[in-house]
Every structure is written in C-alpha cells, then in structure tokens.
Amino acid sequence: MAEFWHELWIAFCLLLVIEGIIPFLYPQRWRQLVAQLAQISDSSLRMVGFISMIAGTALLLISR
Fold first, then answer.
1. Which of 6, 8, 23, 58 has the greatest number of C-beta atoms within 10 Å?
2. For the chain, first and last CA: distance in Å?
3. Which domain range does residue 15 map to?
4. Can you give the pLDDT at residue 28?
5. What's the pLDDT tens digit per position in 14-37?
6. Torsion (CA) 1, 63, 53, 24 in degrees, nearest 10
C-alpha cells in the first residue's frame, strides 16, 4: 500500500510540473486563457472536467 501512495505522490508532483509549464513560458497568454475560462458556463466546464477524467481513466487502464 505504501508503494501506491508513493506513486500517487509522484503523479501529483508531475501534474504540478506540467501545469506550471504554460504560465512559466507564456504568462500573458495564460492570463488571457484564464479570463476566457471565467466566461464559460458551469455546465460546459463540468463536461470538460468529466471528459478529462474519463480520458485519464481510460489511458490508465490501457497503460496497465
């Protein structure tokens, strides 16, 4: 079980690195994107989040 938590911790750290790349390289474009995201409806954001979760789960299943 400790190995699971260790791998989950590694995945979380990699997520932070990947999410930090765009704001680091293109801060102005990131700011514009966040402003555009603020105008999208809640239902659209939920759908994007749901699709992202399904895609991530499918990729995990395929990779195992």
1. 23
2. 17
3. 2-63
4. 97
5. 999 999 999 999 999 999 999 999
6. 90
* Total domains, the chain: 1
**Amino acid identity for residue 20 in this structure:** G
Q: Which two tokens stand for residue 33?
A: 């994107």
CB 30 within 8 A of CB 23: yes
* Residue type at position 17: V
DSSP codes joined into one string, 5-37: HHHHHHHHHHHHHHHHHHHHH-HHHHHHHHHHH
Instruction: Let me know if 16 is exposed, middle or buried by CB neighbors in 10 A (0-12, 13-18, 19+).
Output: exposed
Q: How many residues does the chain have?
A: 64
Structure tokens at 30: 């990131």
